[in-house]
Design brief:
mainly alpha
Length: 277
């Protein structure tokens, strides 16, 4: 993997991780159809760093919300300000609880993790999954604006979104697209659905990174590649910040349709190219 290839892959990761077009689907197409070395193709530590870069993106964009959750949880526990009406006084603490609940269903994926990873190398399956992602986004574009926020979403709402996040582990399905669509379907306000989808990815990405880091340590780390790896990480972080801000803007205007058409085109192309070559 060259320096500029690492930067390119970082940009691809940062853009596709947050825009609802599936990062795993795009990396699979690059690997399977164009023979390009990807993070999953023998560069596990690079994969960890790229996901760390996208995690930094979320923390930068939603830093105020993360800080608010931290202090609200302390206040809710009686460590911070004096307790009051907990639902209205500590809304960020309630959002933190909902994020934890939405993360719990991911435990269901662990027993079949290896089987799901094999789908990454099936380009026809990836194409079908991208088409399904496009269908979800098209439906999301037509949904009526909800009203629920951190003070009114329910436990069932968070669990439903969490189960949809489990489904999005399948390569080719967009995690952000799936969870945002699920949030809109449960009645969340559009801007809050986007915020919740990205914030709930923090524990998921941290957990996945810890598991990947163990595998990377076993395979060994090529320290000579570190400059390229770090450049890719920075590219992923910068592209991720821009992608999150763009999606927030588009979501507030209810414009997911363009992403739906893009996923349909990419899905069909992946299937056709696989059948030809």
């Amino acid at each position: 993997m060259s320096f500029w290839q690492a930067v390119f892959l970082g940009l691809v990761q940062g853009i596709t991780e947050f825009l609802p077009i599936s990062s795993s689907g795009h990396l699979s197409i690059l690997n399977n159809l164009f023979g390009m070395s990807t993070p999953e193709d023998g560069h596990l530590f690079f994969d960890v760093l790229l996901h760390l870069g996208t995690l930094v993106s979320i923390c930068v964009v939603y830093w105020k919300d993360i800080v608010a959750m931290f202090f609200d949880v302390l206040g809710f526990a009686g460590i911070g300000p004096a307790a009051g009406d907990r639902k209205s006084r500590y809304p960020a603490a309630r959002m933190f609880l909902m994020i934890i609940l939405a993360t719990l269903p991911l435990a269901l994926v662990l027993p079949i993790k290896d089987q799901l990873e094999t789908l990454y190398y099936n380009s026809i399956f990836i194409g079908v999954a991208l088409i399904l992602t496009g269908c979800m986004l098209y439906v999301a574009d037509k949904m009526v604006q909800g009203k629920k926020t951190e003070t009114s979403m329910t436990v069932w709402d968070s669990l439903i979104i969490g189960l949809c996040q489990c489904a999005a582990v399948i390569p080719g399905l967009s995690r952000s697209g799936t969870t945002i669509t699920a949030g809109l379907a449960t009645g969340l306000r559009r801007d809050y659905a986007v915020k919740f989808a990205f914030l709930m990815s923090i524990p998921a990405v941290l957990g996945a990174n810890l598991l990947s880091l163990v595998d990377a340590a076993k395979d060994g780390i090529d320290w000579s590649m570190m400059p390229a790896y770090l450049a890719g990480m920075l590219a992923a972080s910068a592209a991720g910040i821009l992608s999150i801000r763009l999606l927030k803007l588009l979501a507030n205007r209810g414009r997911f349709g363009g992403f739906a058409y893009y996923c349909w085109v990419m899905g069909v192309l992946a299937i056709i190219l696989t059948m030809i070559f």
